[in-house]
Design a protein that fits this description.
Strands 3-2-1-4 form a 4-stranded mixed sheet, covered by helices on one side. It contains 7 helices and 4 strands. The model has no long low-confidence stretch (mean pLDDT 81).
């Protein structure tokens, strides 16, 4: 009777799907290298980076490859503002305006400045009684043309001051 059961079972058995092809050893090494060098990257992030390089690999396959190389799971990501600033500090400049009230003359002076996040250096750009868009544009041009803008930097966030002056300064430093 056993032979009959096997015959009937084989007759009605569905063929197994072909599945994915195994990935190459070079790709496994690339996955292991990415996981080792970038401790906060998970399988989904590695999958995205591999897709940019032209490789289509499932996240489950990446997890298997990482586990096979005995690489521990990624550390907890820190999505705080402090982490972002540390990572982007080389490229960030913060621009702002503040005002000074002169007691003897009862006038208000507006001062424009830039802070480099990486070195925390403050660059005073200029001051005026009436901040205008053209004044802010000229300050931004002078700052970038004088060589005071460090190489590789140039993204700025502007806060404060008049809207026109803020927009003009952003156009020049961005």
């Amino acid at each position: 009777m056993r032979w009959h059961r096997r015959l009937v079972a084989n007759k009605w058995r569905q063929p197994s799907p072909p599945g994915w092809r195994p990935i190459s050893d070079e790709l496994v090494q690339l996955i292991a290298t990415m996981a080792r060098e970038n401790r906060t990257w998970g399988a989904v992030r590695i999958k995205g980076e591999l897709r940019r390089l032209g490789h289509r690999v499932a996240a489950a396959t990446i997890r298997k490859a990482v586990r096979a190389h005995r690489i521990p799971p990624p550390r907890h990501r820190d999505d705080s503002w402090r982490t972002f600033l540390r990572a982007q500090a080389q490229a960030l400049l913060a621009t702002d305006f503040f005002h000074i009230d002169c007691a003897p003359t009862l006038t208000r002076l507006y001062v424009a400045f830039v802070i480099e996040h990486s070195t925390r250096r403050v660059h005073l750009l200029g001051n005026t009684r009436y901040p205008t868009a053209s004044w802010a544009t000229q300050l931004g041009r002078d700052f970038t043309a004088d060589g005071r803008l460090p190489a590789g930097r140039g993204q700025a966030a502007v806060k404060g001051g008049s809207l026109r002056a803020r927009a003009a300064l952003l156009d020049v430093t961005a």
